[in-house]
Amino acid sequence: MTVLSDQDIKKELGINIYIYPFKEANLKGASYNLTASKFAWSLKEKSQIDTADGKIIIPPRDTALIETEEVIWVSEKISGTYHSRVSIVSQGIGHINTTLDPDYLGSSLIALHNNTDVSIELIVGKPFVTLTFQYVQIQASNTDRNNSPGRKDILSKLKMQIYPDADDWFNRSYMGDKNLLLDELRKCDDYKKIQDKRKEEEEEQKQQEEQQKQKKENQFSQLKFNVLLAVAVVLLITPIFFDWVSGNLKSLSNFFDTIFNKIFPSLGLIVMLIIIDDLKEKFLQK
Ligand SMILES: O=c1ccn([C@H]2C[C@H](O)[C@@H](COP(=O)(O)OP(=O)(O)OP(=O)(O)O)O2)c(=O)[nH]1
């Protein structure tokens, strides 16, 4: 089990992890902070908490069920765990220790219990729970496609009163369609920045590969030139050497005979070989 770092999460964003809305400020060293939406319910009252003033008040000894603003999807290769934030539990809120299953799609319903005798206030839009991601060893086969997005099934089971604005919120098209969720993620400025950086890195990598290829080609051309030069020298010297040894180079005309009849054909052959080789390379490049 490997916990994903911020770099890993960025790498997987838009591939194995979708988070919408995505804000880089909520990305921590090895986790992502989820923020409170304006939709919350009181377990005791069985009713939606009034958050019109931008606050979620959790009454003493009550449990609030709060929807995260973020809608997420993770593939079969990823699971996760929800954790408390110390700034929240230190006020007397109970710990969060729940799991995100592979292939879950939707917002998250987070239960916060107020263990104190006073009301505790959360701010809508502020981070209130942390999600860590892990790679699973072998792709999961038992995935989470049965739970309804945002765990509306739990709210229904608990007979919570759900107002029409919350209903509309649950019914947003991308809550139940990961392709539409990806479309939304692509509109996020912070995700666009990540994509731009990815493109830059890909371009850099391509350039490096091109330079490496060019370097290898140059090295090969140099080697080819050296080999051909060595062959040419051997072909030039050999007839002169043998004619000299056998005494055929006695006169100047014999010397020119050797050049015209033995060396020039050899040189011609080499030039032809070079031309054929170049033509072959040009043909292969096409
Ligand atoms: O605090 C949490 C934890 C999980 N989830 C989502 C993501 C997860 O993939 C899904 C199922 O989580 P879990 O297995 O804990 O839910 P359950 O309802 O207890 O079990 P089951 O999946 O068998 O329905 O619910 C939440 O919304 N809130």
Automatic annotation (TrEMBL):
The keyword Zinc does not apply. SUPFAM superfamilies: dUTPase-like. The chain crosses the membrane at residues 223-242, 262-279. Residues 191-226 form a coiled coil. The keyword Hydrolase applies. InterPro entries: dCTP_deaminase, dUTPase-like_sf, dUTPase_trimeric. GO terms for biological process: dUTP biosynthetic process. One of its GO terms (molecular function) is dCTP deaminase activity. Keywords: Coiled coil, Hydrolase, Membrane, Nucleotide metabolism, Transmembrane, Transmembrane helix. This is Deoxycytidine triphosphate deaminase.
